[in-house]
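Researcher: Quick one. three chains, 215 residues in total.
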Amino acid sequence: MPTSTGKKLREIYDNLYASFGPQHWWPADDSFEVIVGAILTQNTSWKNVEKAIRNLKERKFLSPQGLKSITETELAALIRPSGYYNQKAKKLKGFVKFFFNDCGGDLKAMSAEELYPLRERLLGVKGIGPETADSILLYALEKPIFVVDTYTYRLCSRHNLVAEDASYEQIQNMFMDNLPADVQLFNEFHALIVRLGHLYCRRTPGCDTCPLKGF
DNA sequence: CACCAGGCAAGTA
DNA sequence: TACTTGCATGGT
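Model:
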């Protein structure tokens, strides 16, 4: 029996899906590339990340071993187009170290871990915050967790689904307490929210052609 | 020219 | 705890 909030969420989801169709997220060749992309796209447009990813691929460094072997300085130069390149080079190095030292350098073993303990471990890596951790869990490891970003916050806030000052966890719980824990649903829903944001989100709400009034 | 993008950590009081 | 600031490129 769905909650009333659950019904509203479904209504929003159905509306978005009918308007935009499937989004085919995450755009990447493999899980490791998803993780790298998740770090590179922090506060950065995906267009810029694509260039950085392309550079890494061309030089054959887009793999756990590749990122382990490259120096931080060389890495920073390759990911330059994605912005914050010194910070992100450090973050990628930090993740790779965690991946080999604490996860056995094995994505399979990693995804076999329990969701929330693994989430806590990811949050312990410098440079991986809640959104990046959840993006990795959902899109790379296919764990049923809802990803919250700035668009999600605006959507929920403007539709009065959460308080104005709601925390990341509160928004995440609002989705997860009212929807089935379904990887495909969480995947598509978040991707649709981002699509909505790209097309309609500017600081001021209320665009006539927006499928969701108010966003 | 200003403003923003699929955040996060560190510093301040 | 609750703000603020640094990080940085590329597109509009």
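The mean pLDDT of chain A is 96.
Researcher: Thanks, that's what I needed.
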